[in-house]
Design goal:
- This protein has 283 residues and is mostly helical.
- It has 14 helices and no strands.
- Helix 3 packs across helix 14, helix 8 packs parallel to helix 14 and helix 11 runs antiparallel to helix 14.
- The relative contact order is 0.14.
């Protein structure tokens, strides 16, 4: 009896701390977003005063209208979204193809090569921006979107890792049966492996789109103002003639900047979680 009571007590205590941690994490995530949302409907005079005014006296929804009037927000957003979609499709195809080769074809040096590819994940992207800029300058590809296209075609080490781990879980008999029927390696990849990798595809496409949507340093270095992407435009576009930041309007634009990513994640969250989790089940 004491054992049963002790087990129940331990379970309740464990549940209590689990819920407490989740609540604290939720507060940590939601409080900054709530501050962003409240600031976006304030007047500038309400934003810069002390003590802090938490709620605006009169919500300034006009800030959202001004966010579109001060810069070509919709045009830049569409441009960024189109590039994000193209990049996500290309990097999904290239990374899945490389991941398939690493998972299903064991040749001399393949394990070392895979280790080399995965080790690239530890290199910060900002470290290779200047070398990339020099290369693309020699190729006369700056102020264009070709650098994003070429990077997508080259694949992504993290995405290659996800696909490789997922494809390892496929039974060898399935591949052997397809080969007996005369299927080529690409046909096996295209008609058997790729259609069954929807969770990983969803995760990779969302991550790739988010990478372009939130990319700041690469467009800052490679693109002029007339071709730049959304994050750079948001950071530099909302200033008055005196050069001071229009913070409340900028916050309104940032709310609209975040919303598509939130919607995208909630629509694909089951596939994302399943894709990431299942990719780590087999080594």
């Amino acid at each position: 009896m004491n054992y049963v009571l002790r087990t129940r007590l331990q379970k309740r205590v464990g549940n209590f701390f689990s819920y407490l941690i989740m609540i604290l994490v939720a507060i940590t995530v939601l409080v900054p977003f709530a501050g962003l949302l409240l600031t976006s409907i304030k007047q500038d005079s309400e934003y810069i005063v002390w003590p802090i005014i938490l709620f605006p006296e009169i919500p300034q929804w006009i800030n959202y209208v001004n966010a579109f009037l001060l810069i070509p927000l919709s045009r830049v957003a569409v441009r960024t979204a189109v590039l994000g979609i193209v990049v996500s499709i290309l990097v999904t195809f290239s990374s899945s193809l490389v991941g398939f080769a690493f998972a299903r074809y064991k040749v001399k040096g393949s394990r070392f090569l895979f280790f080399l590819v995965v080790s690239l994940m530890i290199i910060p992207v900002i470290v290779i921006l200047i070398p990339q800029f020099i290369i693309y300058s020699y190729l006369h590809l700056t102020n264009s979107y070709w650098p994003w296209i070429f990077n997508a075609i080259a694949g992504n080490s993290f995405f290659i890792f996800l696909f490789r781990q997922f494809f390892l879980s496929f039974p060898k008999e399935l591949e052997d049966a397809a080969e007996v029927d005369g299927a080529s390696p690409f046909r096996i990849y295209w008609q058997i492996f790729l259609p069954n990798a929807k969770p990983v595809i969803a995760a990779v496409m969302v991550f790739a789109f988010q990478g372009v949507w939130s990319d700041y340093f690469m467009p800052l270095i490679l693109l002029n103002d007339d071709k730049t992407l959304l994050s750079v435009k948001l950071a530099s576009g909302y200033v008055n003639p005196q050069g001071f930041s229009l913070t409340t309007i900028s916050m309104a634009a940032n709310v609209m900047y975040i919303i598509p990513l939130v919607i995208l994640f909630f629509l694909a969250q089951k596939h994302i979680i399943r894709g990431v989790v299942t990719s780590g089940l087999k080594g």
